[in-house]
Amino acid sequence: MIDRMSPVSEDELHAFIDGQLPADRREAVASWLAENPEQAAMVAAWRAQAEGLRARYGAVADEPVPERLKIENVLRLTGAPKRSWIAMAVAASVAAFAIGGGIGWFARGASAAAPSGFDMLASEALDAYKLYVVEVRHPVEVPGSELAHMTQWLSKRLGYDQRIPDLQAMGLKLVGGRLLPGPTGAAAFYMYEGPSGERFTIYCAKSGVTQTALRYKEANQAAAFYWVDDKVAYVVSGPADRDKLEKVSKAIYDQVDKAAVKRS
Fold this sequence. Notes:
Blueprint: H1 10-18, H2 23-35, H3 37-61, H4 71-78, H5 85-106, H6 117-132, E1 142-143, H7 147-158, E2 173-182, E3 185-193, E4 199-206, E5 215-219, E6 222-229, E7 232-239, H8 242-263
Antiparallel strand pairs: 1-2, 2-3, 3-4, 4-7, 5-6, 6-7
């Protein structure tokens, strides 16, 4: 069994970003990052770089290598016997030239913009949803029955008042919440459960912008609506049923908006 309190290595941090850690160790690393904001910021930067590379080159990475770049075709262009050292030397020169062209071919999608910090936050939230939504015994740190304590604790850790939405009218019970590391610092994470066992989560963290329009994102049978209101970013994640998720998100949006009006 993995020791959840053992030191976190750099290799584990990279595995955490890539989703390669066992579930129990991933939870331990997430908790460690929540207590170490500098390392959390570093991991967020690494994740942003990885997502940026995927966004730019993911579509072409799976494409076959062009025929002109295959070594046999490079050798054929030289007209020399395959096994001669001259052929290898000439092939190396031609390959170097071809690789230059290959880079141009591979990077033709580089004009696509890297994801914004706001989009990265949505990706973080979806990762958290997929990680904790399957947990049976430990989906949250503080149960919904301790609402007052959870509200006070997370408000203090995030640096602004938490207004945890009440979704009972929609048949969604508050399971509880937890503290997570986020791209811009600490993030609050709340989980709700419906009568048939479906789960929805709210991930919120400070944002560098004041307000944005509502956006939608899907990722492997999960989806999220996300927006910024009064310099706080919200990501509502759930199963990839857009209509249902939109209704839940709207109910949350309305309560968040009313809270923001009261604060102002």
